[in-house]
């Protein structure tokens, strides 16, 4: 994907640069030699499956041999509409105009209302005649003589264009332009057929998710790999209970707009429920006020569902400070003083990860971390008892709830991952083979994969 | 050695039976020595400590456990009613006080300063022991219970379900090898003890449940029928507390099997008499088998009564026995020979065996472990 | 009980030991013959705990009298006392005993967290030879009133309470005690019996516990914490305390035990506790991992020693007579029938199972009945071993030390320590195993149920002598070891099994005995073979597993080891581990038949004698 983007950029730069050079050349030379033969059979079409603004132009090469040509110049002209229609500026006015036209059609010709409306819509606007002199036309650039096709880009989506093309001789002499092409409106397509593979992939994954949800609801057992970190929640909470100490839960230092914080709150709900069952104390200092509110909600509902509403104490879930290191200083200090028996770090962490985890380790706590920040994972893995790595962390809610819907969608997503894995393997294999053999067909396949399937 | 010890079930037309009627915990004995009691007479009674309801009041009113005694509205030993306030927090400036209500009625037994937990002891549960066997009280065990004696016809079953009950014996089958099916049960059998011949079917039991039969006694029952009636597969043979509306007793075992003729005849001869039955079976430590006790009129003594018990449990040539394992399961016969040396069985193991001449006239060899005496 | 005086182990020549079971009292005599201790004579008599005797010593003396008769050695004098010390022709030097009469030692245990202190309490109780009736914990998913109801229903001989690390939780453990105290579990022995409560929890909670149980009706004993920290389990003091209380209270209330206690030279031990002790002694002495199983009519005990850690479990309702119906219910009939290669009517079998339950003493007469009974035994043993594996775990709640290398393989606490690959010795005892008509059947029952991996020795306890030797180990370990090796165990042979699953018919492993001089070969996956190797023979075996199979050194790596023969010999098992029989009935039957033919399990299936 990334490679294709780079390629496109490079290509564009190259085109622009060469076009610039040509324009300078073109303007500085005079045409005194015999002009080359004009190209013929100019056909312009709106590029299908695009976002608009692009026209595909094809022609038959000039009779003059390629080596005697510098290239072809593409000329475009945006047709302007006739004055009375130009007056129609706003939508409202346009609507009114259309309505009037419909009405007149209805009255004057006595046709059915629906048909009248359609006819009014269809009635082609009349355009001003394009200038005869092609020098008044816009040059879209000069392209090498080997090409007989060109994509004119950057056009006005709502405009109507006509095109001409002329050959340029080695000395800069122009051939006569071709006849103007038909009127083309480079409209945006509703559907981009090139992205069809993506649509199919999406449909496959969606179907897989759907099927697995249905299967899960019908009671098909969905096996999920044991996630040691989540299995160990009971153990950590039990340890706190036996030792008569508290449980510390840090929900990351980001706000609720961070997906990891949300996942952290989900896990908090589970930890709090276990704590409620064991009657252990759970303390949640937060670095954001919104996180505090969310954490309170989550913990309270956990205590309710554990049948221990009486044991819920909102004062143990509190806001400390937004300041990264102010927060860390507070938490570390609290850990050394109160020596919690279990520490959870679930959310988005940065430089503070190791400070927290090392402090927790030094007070002898069972520590369970979960984050999707790759740079912090090694610290957590080394200093904590259990670590949920990226994806595991996000899968936690499905894993913990065991609800068929969530499990089913997790399984469905796995199908997606398998598909991606297969494409990667195929792509790598093809690219490697291509590099070794230099085969053109393989290169075409790789290009197809990169440009089409991965939707450049 | 032509004799060997082997277990057996008692089937006796007349024996003196002692029923020990003991309270689970000490209490009051209601009957006195020499009393003549009926099956339904309450002979001993006691009150078990009521159920305990624990409640962590300190948590509920958000107070420190140590402060709990002063926040309690009731003191230890006081009576509380359900939903009566029992504790109130101090609140803030005398406002926002939280109250805690009693979850159950009873006596406030304990208030813990360490955990903030209180215990409410519910009403005492009366426990009554009925006489079960009509007869005469021959011994009173102070604070524990009584021993009741009577002359009875005694039949031990091999397996039963359900507890103690009593009723009139009524025969539902024509012979000892006729199965007991639903059409043999009718409305007139309500409250009676129905005696069948061979296997009792699930349909018969269901019909009996509907009609209100007190108990069914028959030769056999099918495992799947028992499972259907109980609603679960019986794993361990400790029964007596099932709540299926009636008591079931099988005299021979599981499967299609006829009641031993002797047993059947004894029951037939006592048809119309009132019997006490108990289905409770316990095969581990302290074996307990289901029993049918038929109290006999004390005056009508006949010669059958003086069965000596010295021979019971000993195998000798001619002893009536029952084979209790496949391939001859359920066959009745007499001992034909008692070979001394162990023999190799079909299974390959070596065991002491005996020859049985079956009712059919056939003589077969079976391991001694696989027979039981039909005790007199 | 004269254990206070030091016993001079060298001067002991004659040892008498009894085991008072629920139904039988078994006595053995051990004598020093040519410098080594050998079990020489044995005797049996019915246990006399219940009426009309109500005195356990009567049965003990009867059993000893039987030895006296067969050995010709006078053991009991005219006053009915055991003659001590031994002379050349009469008496013995020491007399020891175990007991499981009257249902053994029944306990209730409690702890704070089920997987932590409560599990430790259960381990302590089981290790001491008790039957654990229930485990109460703060997180056992029962509401407090349900817990109280349960406590009231039980009639334990004693209660063990643990909870909190030293200096840790006080509140929860007090709360649990506060529930046990008013619930007043009724002891089995009479009303005058003060229920012993052993507290082995947080040392800081002791004053509170003392307050809770001060009301009377209890005899509170306090001992060291079972879990001083969560990282450490200290079962010794609690186990010793259980033994003390067992003697002091439980035994003292059983009929005749006061006399019995006064005549033994070592404290009486609960039978399973003694079996555990001998297994530990052997495992320690030989430096091996061992698993022992005792399958009875009602229960199945599994003992294991892995890397010096001892565990015992009692599967209360897995047995071959009283509990046989429960085995069938738990395992389900189709699972049992997969071991059967004959046609059997399932409905008929169900009735037979129930008939065995209500008439527990019967024995299989026909080969069909034996095949079925052994199929049930396989499942009972398999289920008991599963329960054992789930219980024998590393400690829970322990802080883990990690390196970055652990990123994708985070082992959690509470993993089972039972590892069949590391298992060296598998010992069978109990009716269905000891009394199987052919030793081959015993061996195959063990292999099918326990699925040993790698190279494992199989043995059976000849006459259930392990309890006696367990007590003996506490006073004379050397004698216990010698008798265990020479007389107690009957070596069945060695099982070589490859771990892994392969394709039917493809090579699983190649083997050669003594460099090929005594035989060698390849064995295909799905097959099993038996090689004769006599009881006193040893041989060096080299096993070269195919790729993907493991016989102890890792997948595909060869192993060379000295192995011991036995009455069965060497069994080469290439049926794969985990052992999976084909789902399809016909295929399954074929596979089982093949196994039966290869080992010669039921050679005279046609029926010869009766």
Account of the 3D structure:
The complex is a heterotrimer of chains A (456), B (376) and C (610). In chain A, the strands form 3 sheets. Chain A has a 6-stranded parallel sheet with strand order 9-8-7-10-11-12, sandwiched between helices. In chain A, strands 1-2-5 form a 3-stranded antiparallel sheet, with no helix packed on it. In chain A, strands 4-3-6 form a 3-stranded antiparallel sheet. Chain A is built from 14 helices and 12 strands. In chain A, helix 8 links the parallel strand 8 and strand 9. Chain A has 3 domains: 2-80 and 127-190, Immunoglobulins (Immunoglobulin-like), CATH 2.60.40; 194-221 and 405-453, no CATH class; 228-402, 3-Layer(aba) Sandwich (Rossmann fold), CATH 3.40.50. In chain A, 34% of the residues are buried. The longest helix of chain A is centred in the last third of the chain and has 34 residues, at 404-437. Chain A has helices spanning 2-28, 83-87, 91-109, 113-122, 196-217, 228-243, 259-278, 289-305, 324-338, 352-362, 377-383, 391-401, 404-437, 440-453, and strands at residues 40-46, 55-60, 69-79, 138-143, 149-152, 160-169, 247-250, 282-286, 317-319, 342-346, 366-371, 386-389. By secondary structure, chain A is an alpha/beta fold. In chain A, helix 3 (91-109) crosses helix 4 (113-122) and helix 13 packs antiparallel against helix 14. Chain B has 376 residues and is mostly beta strands. Chain B has 3 domains: 4-45 and 130-295, no CATH class; 52-121, OB fold (Dihydrolipoamide Acetyltransferase, E2P); 314-375, SH3 type barrels, CATH 2.30.30. Chain B is 9% helix and 40% strand. In chain B, strand 13 (135-141) and strand 14 (145-156) form a beta hairpin. The radius of gyration of chain B is 28 Å and the shape is elongated. Chain C is built from 17 helices and 22 strands. Chain C is an alpha/beta fold and 610 residues long. Chain C folds into 3 domains: 9-101, ATPase, nucleotide binding domain (Nucleotidyltransferase, domain 5), CATH 3.30.420.40; 104-263, 3-Layer(aba) Sandwich (Rossmann fold), CATH 3.40.50.280; 291-396 and 416-599, no CATH class. Chain C starts with 13 loop residues before the first strand and ends in an 11-residue tail after the last helix. In chain C, helix 8 crosses helix 15 (466-475). The chains are: A alpha/beta (456), B mainly beta (376), C alpha/beta (610).
């Amino acid at each position: 994907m990334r490679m294709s983007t780079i390629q496109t950029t490079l290509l564009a730069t190259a085109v622009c640069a060469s076009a610039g050079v040509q324009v300078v050349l073109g303007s500085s030379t005079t045409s005194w030699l015999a002009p080359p033969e004009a190209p013929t059979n100019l056909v312009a079409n709106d590029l299908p499956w695009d976002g608009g603004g692009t026209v595909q132009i094809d022609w038959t090469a000039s009779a003059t041999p390629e080596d005697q040509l510098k290239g072809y110049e593409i000329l475009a002209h945006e047709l302007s509409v006739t004055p009375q229609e130009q007056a129609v500026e706003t939508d409202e006015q346009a609507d009114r105009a259309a309505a009037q036209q419909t009405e007149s059609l209805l009255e004057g010709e006595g046709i059915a209302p629906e048909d009248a409306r359609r006819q009014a819509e269809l009635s082609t606007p009349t355009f001003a005649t394009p200038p005869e002199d092609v020098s008044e036309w816009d040059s879209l650039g000069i392209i090498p003589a080997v090409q007989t096709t060109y994509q004119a880009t950057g056009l006005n989506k709502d405009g109507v264009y006509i095109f001409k093309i002329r050959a340029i001789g080695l000395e800069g002499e122009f051939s006569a332009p071709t006849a103007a092409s038909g009127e083309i409106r480079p409209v945006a397509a509703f559907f981009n057929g090139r992205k069809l593979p993506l649509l199919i992939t999406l449909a496959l994954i969606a179907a897989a998710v759907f099927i697995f949800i249905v299967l899960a609801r019908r009671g098909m057992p969905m096996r999920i790999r044991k996630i040691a970190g989540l299995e160990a929640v009971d153990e950590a909470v039990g340890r706190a209970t036996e030792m008569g100490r508290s449980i510390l839960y840090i929900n990351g230092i980001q706000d609720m707009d961070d997906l990891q914080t949300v996942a952290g709150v989900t896990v908090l709900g589970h930890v709090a429920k276990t704590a409620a069952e064991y009657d252990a104390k759970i303390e949640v200092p937060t670095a954001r006020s919104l996180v505090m509110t969310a954490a309170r909600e989550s913990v309270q509902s956990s205590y309710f569902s554990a049948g221990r509403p009486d044991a819920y104490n909102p004062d143990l879930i509190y806001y400390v400070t937004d300041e990264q290191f102010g927060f860390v200083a507070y938490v570390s200090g609290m850990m050394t003083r109160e020596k919690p028996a279990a520490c959870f770090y679930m959310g988005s962490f940065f430089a503070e990860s190791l400070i927290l985890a090392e402090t927790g380790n030094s007070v002898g706590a069972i520590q369970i971390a979960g984050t999707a920040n790759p740079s912090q994972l090694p610290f957590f893995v080394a200093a904590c008892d259990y670590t949920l790595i990226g994806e595991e962390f996000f899968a936690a809610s499905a894993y913990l709830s065991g609800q068929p819907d969530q499990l089913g969608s997790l399984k469905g997503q796995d199908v997606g991952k398998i598909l991606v894995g297969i494409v990667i393997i195929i792509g790598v294999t093809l690219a490697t083979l291509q590099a070794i053999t230099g085969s053109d067909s393989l290169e075409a396949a790789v290009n197809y994969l990169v440009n089409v399937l991965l939707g450049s | 050695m032509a004799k060997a010890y082997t277990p057996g079930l008692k089937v006796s037309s007349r024996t003196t039976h002692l029923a020990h009627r003991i309270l689970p915990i000490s209490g009051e004995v209601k009957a006195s020595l020499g009393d003549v009691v009926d099956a339904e007479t309450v002979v001993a009674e006691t009150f078990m400590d009521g159920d305990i309801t624990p409640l962590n009041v300190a948590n509920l009113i958000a107070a420190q456990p140590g402060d709990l005694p002063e926040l309690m509205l009731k003191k230890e030993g006081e009576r509380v009613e359900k939903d009566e306030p029992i504790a109130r927090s101090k609140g803030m400036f005398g406002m926002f006080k939280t109250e805690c209500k009693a979850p159950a009625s009873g006596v406030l037994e304990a208030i813990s300063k360490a955990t903030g937990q209180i215990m409410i002891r519910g009403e005492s549960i009366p426990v009554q022991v009925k006489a079960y066997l009509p007869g005469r009280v021959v011994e009173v065990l102070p604070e524990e219970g009584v021993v009741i004696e009577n002359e009875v016809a005694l039949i031990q079953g091999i397996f039963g379900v359900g507890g103690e009950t009593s009723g009139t014996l009524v025969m539902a089958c024509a012979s000892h090898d006729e199965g007991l099916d639903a059409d043999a049960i009718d409305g007139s059998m309500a409250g009676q003890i129905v005696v069948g011949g061979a296997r009792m079917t699930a349909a018969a039991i269901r019909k009996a449940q509907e009609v209100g039969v007190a108990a069914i006694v028959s030769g056999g029952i099918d495992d799947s029928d028992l499972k259907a009636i109980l609603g679960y597969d019986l794993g361990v043979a400790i029964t007596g507390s099932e709540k299926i509306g009636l008591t079931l007793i099988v005299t021979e075992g599981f499967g299609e099997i006829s009641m031993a003729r002797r047993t059947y005849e004894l029951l037939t001869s006592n048809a119309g008499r009132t019997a006490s039955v108990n289905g409770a079976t316990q095969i581990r430590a302290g074996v307990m088998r289901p029993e049918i006790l038929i109290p006999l009129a004390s005056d009508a003594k006949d010669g059958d009564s003086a069965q000596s018990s010295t021979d019971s449990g000993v195998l000798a040539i001619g002893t009536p026995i029952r084979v209790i394992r496949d391939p001859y399961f359920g066959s009745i016969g007499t001992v034909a020979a008692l070979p001394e040396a162990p023999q190799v069985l079909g299974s390959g193991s070596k065991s002491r065996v005996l020859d049985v001449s079956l009712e059919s006239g056939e003589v077969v060899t079976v391991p001694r472990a696989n027979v039981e005496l039909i005790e007199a | 009980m004269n254990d206070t005086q030091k016993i001079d182990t060298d001067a002991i020549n004659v040892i008498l030991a009894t085991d008072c079971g629920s139904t039988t009292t078994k006595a053995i005599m051990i004598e020093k013959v040519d410098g080594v201790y050998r079990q020489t004579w044995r005797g049996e008599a019915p246990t006399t705990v219940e009426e009309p005797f109500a005195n356990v010593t009567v049965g003990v003396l009867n059993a000893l009298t039987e030895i006296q008769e067969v050995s010709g050695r006078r053991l009991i004098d005219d006053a009915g006392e055991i003659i001590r010390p031994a002379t050349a022709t009469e008496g013995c030097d020491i007399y020891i005993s175990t007991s499981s009469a009257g249902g053994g030692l029944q306990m209730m245990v409690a702890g704070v967290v089920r997987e932590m202190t409560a599990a430790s309490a259960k381990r302590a109780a089981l290790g001491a030879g008790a039957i654990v009736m229930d485990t109460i914990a703060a997180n056992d998913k029962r509401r407090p009133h349900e817990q109280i109801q349960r406590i009231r229903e039980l009639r334990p001989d004693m209660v063990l309470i643990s909870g909190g690390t030293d200096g840790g939780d006080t509140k929860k453990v007090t709360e649990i005690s506060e529930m046990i105290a008013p619930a007043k579990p009724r002891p089995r022995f009479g009303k005058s019996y003060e229920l012993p409560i052993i507290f082995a929890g947080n040392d800081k909670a002791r004053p509170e516990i003392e307050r809770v149980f001060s009301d009377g009706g209890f005899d509170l004993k306090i001992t060291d914490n079972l879990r001083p920290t969560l990282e450490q389990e200290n079962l010794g003091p609690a186990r010793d305390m259980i033994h003390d209380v067992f003697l002091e209270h439980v035994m003292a209330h059983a009929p005749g035990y006061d006399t019995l206690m006064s005549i033994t030279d070592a404290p009486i031990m609960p039978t399973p506790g003694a079996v555990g002790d001998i297994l530990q002694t052997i495992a320690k002495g030989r430096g091996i991992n061992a698993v022992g199983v005792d399958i009875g009519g009602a229960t199945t005990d599994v003992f294991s020693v892995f890397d010096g850690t001892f565990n015992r479990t009692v599967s209360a309702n897995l047995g071959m007579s009283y509990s046989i119906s429960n085995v069938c219910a738990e395992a389900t009939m189709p699972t049992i029938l997969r071991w059967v290669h004959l046609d059997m009517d399932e409905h008929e079998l169900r009735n037979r199972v129930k008939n065995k339950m209500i008439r527990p003493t019967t024995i299989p007469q026909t080969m069909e009945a034996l095949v079925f009974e052994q199929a049930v035994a396989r499942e009972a043993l398999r289920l008991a071993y599963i329960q054992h594996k789930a219980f024998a775990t590393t400690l829970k709640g322990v802080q883990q030390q990690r390196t970055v290398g652990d990123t994708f393989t985070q082992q959690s606490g509470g993993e089972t320590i039972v590892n069949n690959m590391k298992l060296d010795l598998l010992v069978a005892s109990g009716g269905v195993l000891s009394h199987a008509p052919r030793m081959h059947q015993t061996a195959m029952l063990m292999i099918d149920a326990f699925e040993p991996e790698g190279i494992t020795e199989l043995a059976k306890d000849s006459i259930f002598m392990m309890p006696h030797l367990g007590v003996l180990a506490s006073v004379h370990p050397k004698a216990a070891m010698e008798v265990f090796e020479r007389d107690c165990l009957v070596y069945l042979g060695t099982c070589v099994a490859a771990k892994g699953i392969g394709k039917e018919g493809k090579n699983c492993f190649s083997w050669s005995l003594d460099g090929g001089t005594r035989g060698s070969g390849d064995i295909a996956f799905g097959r099993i073979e038996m090689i004769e190797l006599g009881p006193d023979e040893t041989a060096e075996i080299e096993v070269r597993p195919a790729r993907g199979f493991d016989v102890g050194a890792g997948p595909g790596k060869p192993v060379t080891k000295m192995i011991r023969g036995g009455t069965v010999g060497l069994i080469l098992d290439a049926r794969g581990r985990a052992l999976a029989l084909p789902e399809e009935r016909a295929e399954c039957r074929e596979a089982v038949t093949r196994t039966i033919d290869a080992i010669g399990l039921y050679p005279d299936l046609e029926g010869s004698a009766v």
